[in-house]
Amino acid sequence: MRRIGFDNDKYIALQSENILKRIDSFGGKLYLEFGGKLFDDFHASRVLPGFEPDSKIRMLMQLKEQAEIIIVINANHIEQNKVRSDLGITYDMDVLRLIDAFRTIGLYVGSVVLTQYESQTAASSFIRRLNDLGIKVYKHYTIPGYPANPQFIASDEGFGLNEYVETERSLVVVTAPGPGSGKMATCLSQLYHEHKRGINAGYAKFETFPIWNLPLKHPVNLAYEAATADLNDINMIDPFHLEAYGVTTVNYNRDVEVFPVLNAMFELIAGKSPYNSPTDMGVNMVGYCITDDEAVREASRQEIIRRYYDTLCKRRKGLASNDEVCKIQLIMNQAGTSVEDRPVIAAALKRAEATGAPAAAIELPDGSIMTGKTSPLLGASAALLLNALKALGGLPHDLHLIAPTVIEPIQHLKTRILGNHNPRLHTDEILIALTICAATNPAAKIALNQLTKLRGTEAHSSVILSPVDSDVFRKLGINLTCEPNYQSKKLYHK
């Protein structure tokens, strides 16, 4: 069974309390730069077992009456059709998704800010679309020399040219679809305009990782480095905090590098800086809520291995570099782990070698490992799911949950009518077939009822799975890794 290593309830209470204290320290108004994912922080839930993916949102709900949301998007990202890899949607569409999601749970979205706006065609069209939807939009412009010239930036020719975002509440949460959107610049621009208007306001930063009060080479912090290998983030000791307080804390290179500039901006805007270090800017309480350090360490080591395989597959697809792979290999060494520490890898490869075809393996909650092989009727991952569900339901391994007479008409539909070349059923198709059979077959119903038990399990495939199959694994909460190989030698893969 997966060991719990994090107290989620304590986190929500402690985090809310700390943010309220920070609001009070600035006289009643705080711009909070919110990094990472708000609704679906699955990275945090994997490395901190017990952390719920929606914990940050649940925490914000505690502050619902004081909070409003600003969503920031870089105009260049709209122009480039930048895509969120985890969701497969463009950043501008994610803005709409986020607005809907916030509104659904009763959080107030005040406005959208377009940063680095230079009248880009697609960005201008997006502004018109938001206006038509009744959403307030503000334009912030590219500032020459940002962030290296604070004297110019914090002037009427810099931040002064940005449109002032009108806000109503004491806590202004500034979030974005992804990195590089301009969250910090938006916060600082607002501080400049608030000060010009004689309004007291402050800035703080909410980043879950790296965890500032854990050791530099703690596996949790190393897992963050692995997750951001493409951004070339590096965890480091905060030298400003060490000098100011004689206390060792962890931050990452971008915040440490930009801190002198930020400090200068604070001084130019308000006359003095409220912070002595990048760590001071943070409000993150995650480190105080770890209850089982060894459970967290082991979960983080597994995450590093998963990130390694993910990057190998991205390299195979032309989406990652050799440098990224080498970086994660180094991180694995620092964490004292290797691919041998992920049992499903060896199991999947052994089954693939024995059958001469793609295979997959899954580690169930009790530690047992099931495998699935490619057959004329089923793909390896579909077979794996059925085998796992039978094991969890105490059903015989050789029991047919779905009769061939049910599968064959589906194959006929796929190949003869819809024109697919692969007759084998994908995981989504096999689950639909299982659901239909469950209406009349008690064994199929038992198997279907086991699906929720797969959440948090580990799986490995001997080949790169199709987006359909990998998406089903993701939705079921199965942590999937794949060998960086395709089943065929074709150049084009869906």
Q: What can you see in these coordinates?
A:
The structure is a single chain. The chain contains 20 helices and 14 strands. The protein is an alpha/beta fold and 494 residues long. The strands form four sheets. It has a six-stranded parallel beta sheet, with helices on both faces. Strands 12-11-13-14 form a four-stranded mixed beta sheet, with helices on both faces. A two-stranded antiparallel ribbon has the order 3-4. Helix 16 (380-392) crosses helix 18 and helix 18 (427-438) crosses helix 19. It is globular and about 75 Å long. It starts with 7 loop residues before the first helix and ends in a 12-residue tail after the last strand. The relative contact order is 0.10.
Structural class: alpha/beta
Low-confidence segments, given as residue ranges, are none
Helical segment count: 20
Percentage of β-strand residues: 5-15%
Computed CA radius of gyration, to the nearest angstrom: 25 Å
Number of E-state strands: 14
Gross morphology = globular
* Largest beta-sheet characterization: 6 strands, parallel
Arrangement of strands in the largest sheet: 6-5-2-7-1-8
